[in-house]
Amino acid sequence: MLTAASDIEVLARFGRALADPIRCRILLALCENPAYPAGLADAIGISRTRLSNHLACLRDCGLVVTVPDGRRIRYELADARLGRALGHLRTAVVAVETDRACPDAGEKGCC
């Protein structure tokens, strides 16, 4: 069965977003509830500038959206199914050899 190029692009974007632990923490927090940047930065324990960069990446990857709320901007998952997918990924059994690192573990970057 052939996979459409768009399917591969979606998975690649998801993978790039999940490649960073801070972005993972942001996504998991947004699975719980939509959030405002200040509260999200405090909850995760990072600066607002750093959070802003990660939120921009997640927006560019198409995983989060902004929702205007008066003079404030709220962030939430772009699709509720993303939360379920993250839940499935968290509980998936992964075959990990403790003496090996992920080949891309040292790479940085985003979508």
Structure notes:
By secondary structure, the chain is mostly helical. It has one domain: Winged helix-like DNA-binding domain superfamily/Winged helix DNA-binding domain (Arc Repressor Mutant, subunit A, Orthogonal Bundle), CATH 1.10.10.10. It contains five helices and two strands; from the N terminus they run ααααββα. It has helices spanning 5-18, 21-32, 37-44, 48-60, 80-91; strands at residues 64-69, 72-77. Strands 1-2 form a two-stranded antiparallel ribbon. It is globular and about 45 Å long. The two termini are 27 Å apart.
Rg from alpha-carbon coordinates: 15 Å
Q: What level of helicity do the residues show?
A: 40-55%
Please indicate the count of domains: 1
- Strand elements, count: 2
The tally of helices reads 5
| CATH topology category name | Arc Repressor Mutant, subunit A
Assigned CATH architecture = Orthogonal Bundle
Q: What is the CATH C-level name?
A: Mainly Alpha
**Strand percentage, roughly?**
5-15%
Would you identify the regions where 5 or more consecutive residues have pLDDT less than 50?
none
Can you summarize this structure?
The chain is mostly helical and 111 residues long. The chain has helices at 5-18, 21-32, 37-44, 48-60, 80-91, and strands at residues 64-69, 72-77. The protein has one domain (9-91): Winged helix-like DNA-binding domain superfamily/Winged helix DNA-binding domain (Arc Repressor Mutant, subunit A).
